[in-house]
Amino acid sequence: MKELKSNGRLVLMSPFLRSHYCKEILSEKIGANVTIAGWIEDIRPMGSLVFMTIRDKTGVSQVVFNKNKTSNEIFVLAKNVPRQSIVSLKGILSKGKGKNIPKEIQAKEMHVLGEAIHPLLLDPTGRVNASIDTRLNARALDLRNVKTMAIFKIRHIALQSIHRTLSDEGFLEVNTAKIIGQAAEGGATLFPFDYFGKDAFLAQSPQLFKEQLTMSLDRVFEIASYYRAEKSHTRRHLNEFISVDIEAAFAEKEDVMELAEKMVENATAEVIEKCSNELRTLEHKIEAPKRPFQKLTYTQAINELNQEGIKIKDGDDLKDHDLQVLGKIHSEYFWIIDWPAKLKPFYIARTTDGKKALSFDLQFGYLELSSGGKRVSDGKELEERLKESGLSPKNFEDHLKTFRWGMPPHSGWGFGLDRFLMILTGMENIREVVLYPRDQDRLLP
Ligand code: ATP
Ligand code: MN
User: Fold this and answer.
1) Which residue's CA is minimally distant from atom 11 of ligand 1?
2) Please, what's the largest Cα pairwise distance for the chain?
3) Which CATH number does the domain housing residue 309 bear?
4) How far apart are CA 177 and CA 1, in angstroms?
5) What pLDDT score was predicted for residue 188?
6) Is 444 exposed, middle or buried (0-12, 13-18, 19+ CB in 10 A)?
7) Is 29 inside a domain boundary?
8) What is the model's pTM?
9) Are residues 164 and 53 in the same domain?
10) Mutate to test the pocket of ligand 1, among 243, 343, 428 (most ligand atoms within 8 A of CB)
């Protein structure tokens, strides 16, 4: 048995179950004793031989059972064990015969550690297509599909990169409460529940918390789940989604816009560098975005829409269809800036004439990726804004009081991680990039 190298990795207490991942076998010497563990993707009996394809998260290995070299018991088991069962296989590495199989394992022992039923809810090899609903109903099994797995490897790399960029820029990672007693932006889209006899809600955003934290922690970020009780049926909305949120003291909106561009640029570069196999598996190409991203003013957007024959007036919000049309004209990353003040939430600062919001939306084609801006940091002004929006300052007293304790000017944004993953992986349905998506119809698994 080959000794397991620790090289900083988890060393199995039961090395007899696995000495190598499938990929590691490729760099091992012919004649070595190896033990792999994974699931059976395929079994092909051919006379006195049985060929078995074993997959783990790193790739595949071919295993050969020879009737004359293994016990009869193992040979019969190899022929009959249900596909997708989890097995541990011990054997000797030999030169492979097929052109895509440089090395194969001559099996000596096999242990079935987790038998799969037959038939399964879906075929993870992808040979038989399954609908997204069937796949989500069997998500754990669907993840054995190399395409599905590729999505979540890319997600991991992007997330790591985002953490790194924000940390390197001096942002402190925080975790704020998701059980809240007061809505961040009014009550319409909240999930309410009973909290020991009081009304509570699931957080729709960390907006108020992260603003409060700038008075001490200066620059903060949070990557967490948020909840919106919207009954939307689109390919880009879920009722639970992950937002990357930042807030920075003493920053202007231009500062945080630049940070968002840098974060997108870094994550894209890292995915290109580290996930070339996964991108190939998904047949998706991504390129380094051109910076700085184009800036389109709200007024320009309205004019462009009018030119396309859409009846939209200055002051109207951009609806789904408007964004589709704009997304055809601007297919890459672009900003929409200088929004009318009335279209943005109460906490967004305004130009001195009060007409425009100091806010921005980041788009990728039709897809809104991020919203943010400079915030109101004056408590009195914030109180006025709440009233103007039809919200009662009394309900926001816990938030408003922090503005009397010395609140720095600050700016920030919220950025939809799942939507970013749609761009990185080329998926058109947000459900593809979320492990267990929650929408109106889906609460299980
Ligand atoms: P939209 O107009 O697309 O519904 P929004 O303006 O309501 O989004 P924000 O409150 O600005 O969303 O949230 C910040 C970001 O979080 C959005 O730009 C988007 O990327 C992401 N996001 C918001 N709501 C959802 C959702 N229901 N599902 C997935 N991502 C979302
Ligand atoms: Mn928005």
Assistant:
1) 371
2) 89
3) 3.30.930.10
4) 50
5) 67
6) exposed
7) yes
8) 0.96
9) no
10) 243
